[in-house]
Amino acid sequence: MNKAVFPGSFDPITLGHVDIINRALPLFDELQIAIGVNVDKKYMFDIDTRMQMIKDVFKDEPKIKVVHYTGLTVDFCYQNDLSFILRGLRNPADFEFEKAIAQTNRKLGQIETLFLLTGPETSYISSSIVRDIYRNGGDVSELVPKEILKFL
Ligand code: ADP
């Protein structure tokens, strides 16, 4: 079985993430959306809320599993028999950052990382922009899936 993981913070999930996930789905038999928990990082939404948001968005998609993990992504891949890491690329800064991580993960665990280029309609969207707008009382409904509006 061809299994992949899309790791991230998803704080919160945005239409950019959804675009990457929907376009990647035909490539895999199972796609685990895995929230990486970093104890040193401060999140706006707690882990249970972020997981529930993603579950609600993909409730009708049987290929998707929503999980969380701590530690190295490659270890998580080994433990769960996942062959590929999926990541999205928005700009050259993403590329430079992702390049080093992907090469390291390949060295550490012989895991391949697959990149999908952001769609033009969602390329400007990031969770941090959504958090900024939300924190300041603005309207984020054009940037996030409608299923998560009830959590905001
Ligand atoms: P992380 O903290 O691991 O970067 P994010 O939730 O911010 O977690 O992002 C997870 C993945 O989703 C990353 O590969 C990121 O590049 C990708 N991503 C986020 N927003 C977009 C977008 N608008 N278009 C394409 N990919 C995106």
What does this protein look like?
The protein is an alpha/beta fold and 152 residues long. The protein has a single domain, classed as 3-Layer(aba) Sandwich (Rossmann fold). It contains five helices and five strands; from the N terminus they run βαβαβαβαβα. The chain has a five-stranded parallel sheet with strand order 3-2-1-4-5, with helices on both faces. α1 (15-24) links the parallel β1 and β2. The chain is globular. The protein starts with a strand and ends in a 17-residue tail after the last helix. Bound molecules: adenosine-5'-diphosphate (ADP). Adenosine-5'-diphosphate binds at residues 8-10, 14, 16-17, 20, 87-88, 90, 94, 118, 122-123, 125-127.
List the helices and strands and how they pair.
Elements (H helix, E strand, L loop, with lengths): L2 E6 L6 H10 L5 E7 L10 H11 L6 E6 L3 H7 L4 E6 L2 H18 L2 E6 L9 H9 L17
The chain binds adenosine-5'-diphosphate.
The site of adenosine-5'-diphosphate (ADP) has 17 residues, from helix 1 and strand 4.
Please tag this protein with its features:
Rossmann fold, 5 strands, binds adenosine-5'-diphosphate, 20% strand, alpha/beta, 152 residues, five-stranded parallel beta sheet
Reported CATH architecture: 3-Layer(aba) Sandwich
How would you classify the helix and strand content by structural class?
Answer: alpha/beta
Ligand species: adenosine-5'-diphosphate
CATH topology: Rossmann fold
Average predicted local confidence, pLDDT: 96
Quick summary of this structure?
The protein has helices at about 15-25, 45-55, 75-80, 90-110, 125-135, and strands spanning about 5-10, 30-35, 65-70, 85-90, 110-115. By secondary structure, it is α/β, with parallel strands linked by helices.
